[in-house]
Amino acid sequence: MVNSRGYSHSRPSSIPKILPRKRTLNTITVYIIISFAFSIAIFVFYTRDVLEDEQKHLPSEVPQFPSEESQFVQIHDELWNAPSRHGLHPCVKPTSKYKAAQGWDRYMTVKSNGGLNQMRTGVYASRCWIFHSKIMGDENFAETASTMGIADMVAVARIMNATLVIPQLDRRSFWKDSSTFADIFDELHFITTLQGDVRIVKELPKQLESVPRARKHFTSWSSMGYYEEMTHLWKEYQVIHVAKSDSRLANNDLPIDIQRLRCRALYRALRFSPQIENLGKF
Asked: What is the CA radius of gyration of the chain?
């Protein structure tokens, strides 16, 4: 409808108009608190995952460094305790076929590498050789041992049916050591331990000191057959003097009882003298 003044009239709309609200201070505060809490939750979640990953790569136990006292005890035990046998067992007991020693009237005198230091090194190295040869099967390792002379001569005396005179230690070589066998080893223990194997005396009988002797340099690494052939010397001599005793007997292809005799000589018969044993206890 148009009024007289020429203006048109329209009806007001029934759709309400939405006006933007003004955010109050409390609402903004709530939003900030919620956002901060959400950020903290996300931070804690990711931090926990990182810590779990790091713990997976850490050792289960914190390493503890030994004290000086515990280190000393460990070194002492490793130095003086018996080494591991690696499943091996002693092989010194003779077999049932082994015969006892007899009282022979033929004598063997021996000149061995001398000196306390030389004999100590020889016994230690010989024992190492026996252990190494059983573990590794390496017979050439014996070449590094300074001597198995005493054990060899015990076995040779047994093979040749001879009475063994306590070995004399070399005093003229570069060792320049005046030690005797009794100074280093328990002489009585050596004799009694091997009395069922070889007859051993401390000295040559007086009546045989001036008789002619067969002086021999036995061939190195000789077999049992070699020494059995050497028994022909008893037809002309009652005393055989062995000028060198180191490495005179082969390591392999010997009867088991001869090998075990060498072990008895090294592990049972050769024991340091009481003076050295007492000194080692300090």
From this structure: 46
CA distance 170 to 178: 8
Q: What are phi and psi of 110, to 5 degrees?
A: -135, 140
- Region of residue 238 (phi > 0: left; psi between -120 and 50: alpha; otherwise: beta): alpha
Give the tokens for residue 73.
């005890």
Q: Minimal CA–CA distance to 274: which of 160, 178, 189? A: 189
And the tokens for 190?
A: 């050596």
Could you give the 3-state DSSP secondary structure of residue 121? helix
Q: What is the pLDDT of residues 158-192, one digit of tens each?
A: 999 999 999 988 777 666 677 888 988 899 999 99
pLDDT for residue 104: 78
Q: Are 92 and 264 spatial neighbours (Cβ–Cβ below 8 Å)? A: yes
Please give the Cα distance from 73 to 100 (Å, whole number). Answer: 45
Spell 76-94 as b/e; 16+ CB within 10 A means b.
Answer: eeeeeeeeeeeeeeeeeee
